[in-house]
Amino acid sequence: MKQRKRIYYNAQQRALIWDRYKQDDSVHDIARLFDRFHSSILGIIHKTGGYRPPERTRSSSILSLAEREEISRGLASNLSFRAIARKLGRAPSTISREVRRHGGLKQYRANKADAAAWENAKRPKPCKLSGNKALCSIIARKMKAAWSPQQISGWLKRKYPDNEEFHVSHETIYKTLYIQTRGALKKELQKHLRTQRAVRRSKSATLKGKGLGKIKDAIPISERPASVEDRAVPGHWEGDLIQGSHNSYIVTLVERHSRYVMLAKIPNNKTSTVIKALIKQAQKLPMELYKSLTWDLGSELSNHKEFTLATDIKVYFCDPKSPWQRGSNENTNRLLRQYFPKGTDLGVHSQLRLNQVARQLNERPRKTLEYETPAERFNQCVASIG
After folding, report:
1. 299, 191 Cβ separation under 8 angstroms
2. Of 22, 90, 168, 349, which sits with the fewest C-beta atoms within 10 Å of its C-beta?
3. What distance in Å separates the CA atoms of residue 330 and residue 293, rounded to the nearest whole number?
4. Is residue 200 part of a domain?
């Protein structure tokens, strides 16, 4: 089999690569556009950690490629520097320096000189974290405690409101992790990110794709009271199951007002098992703090009437293929995958472990709560009814 010649992507091709990557195309799909293997695309993406490099511009005072080609033709015709300079409207010293820097009279080549000039003109902006060991130490410590860069950034502004040296955006933290040439944060910290990715990927909604059947006497989400929608009133919950290997499952519950999380261990996803676990969780809370439950159309809640009869809590069902209608729960499930990765057996985790994970999530500051923690917000609700 004849080996294909190595491809060098030009600026237009690289722009297409980044456009398609931003649209969340896979590297395999992008590579097929050029009849190449995905490894030829990975090198470009990984070099900048999944961040599209900013488009470089050239100052009008700098020689262009066209001018360098004119210099090359002038030298080939034995024109003097002054003659070439007059033709280009440049100073003779500019032409002299250009030729001297890039090979001299005999070795000057326009394309090679232009590429070298672009490379020499790079002026990388210093990273804010570089040299700030104290800040890096704080960030590393919080990441090891499973805080996200956004949580760290918001907390730093609250903790050090008058110290700009300790203010850093979450984007800077991500870039410093993903672009290792910055050298301020160790690559090992990537494993503490929610997704544990080595490069940045765009956010894209995904559907579970599980079979959705009709649930008898289901109350649609359109009939849910408006007071639930605006999150002003506590006590309205969203729920779901996350699945692991060997048909293992965990019940996840999130309170809409405070984003407070509760987790329950279940041996299977039979409706009788799930309903029993939901009743048990509901009985742990005051009635004022558990007024409704919103679920998707999964068959595990086909016996929802039994839950409502036992708890006096109404269950509302989302429209098909509409995960955003349980946005808080969907977001929480993504956070939980840091602790319970896809494809792993969830049955090995005890209820004590689930409680520990829930507590850790509830004690993290949340941007949507103005960097209060869900536990703080939920405890305020408990105190208000006490």
Report:
1. no
2. 22
3. 14
4. no
